[in-house]
């Protein structure tokens, strides 16, 4: 299928269906195996039919495995009875496995998706490192972003642990368009790479820990799934896009250090992780996020099937959530007052920015 909603819809069924079909396959193999044991031993049975066939053994194995125990077919020798009891015990263990395995899978999936959903309003749809930096930058203080990246360090560690323990989670698609666990991981790596290259008057040593954990997740998952690192067919950040990204960051006051060789230094860092995420993207049929969006698009949280009936406008939603410094450039008035209890209140222009 061509890329689009239809292909994503069908691929979203693969993960959950593979778990269900895997459990069904295990059950069928176990029932068939115990039936073959009994049939190979030619175990005498007490059965309604005059001549015992393989179908009789298979029927007895099935009723014992699910502990139905109708009693119409029963073994007559000691070894056959032992196998029957063993199969009933395996059936109980298999049921316990399902009860514990399936909820753990969905809890890990839910924890993964929470972080991806939180990234939507913070980094755009699809997420991009440029938008994540622009939307978090406030008056040359990015403590909130650094704390957010610390949380993503744990998210990457949980992603690595859960997807190595339960590989089927890799095939679970996100529940929202233009979002995926691989795109989120790549956007965080891109953001860390930009911060490692460095911005003037900003020191972020803890970002290196997040970058290390995120790269560890990408490399190990690519290795486990046998996807050899490969260079992309198309450069994710050509020189023209780097210039646009530089201008967009400069617009909000983020100035790259040593601009003359910043693109080269960023390219060197990108080579440390892009071959691995490229391999995973091709194997899983997922799209990697852009460094900067070609055109301005609405975030997923800003759109719904009823928006064409709504009285609000996307511009107002964007203004409420994403504070762009253009407002400050147009309205330079900026006062601050101290409350008696030491709280600081900032007063801006009445154009809607805050």
What does this structure look like?
The structure is a single chain. The protein is mostly helical and 354 residues long. It has 12 helices and 4 strands. The protein has helices spanning 5-41, 54-65, 78-123, 129-136, 143-165, 181-197, 207-224, 239-251, 262-270, 274-284, 314-321, 326-330; strands spanning 45-46, 74-75, 335-338, 344-347. Strands 1-2 form a two-stranded antiparallel ribbon. Helix 1 packs antiparallel against helix 3 and helix 7 crosses helix 10. The longest helix is centred in the N-terminal third of the chain and has 46 residues, at 78-123. It is elongated, with a radius of gyration of 29 Å. Mean pLDDT is 82; it is low at 324-354.
Quick structural overview:
This protein has a two-stranded antiparallel sheet. It is mainly alpha-helical and 354 residues long. The protein has twelve helices and four strands; from the N terminus they run αβαβααααααααααββ.
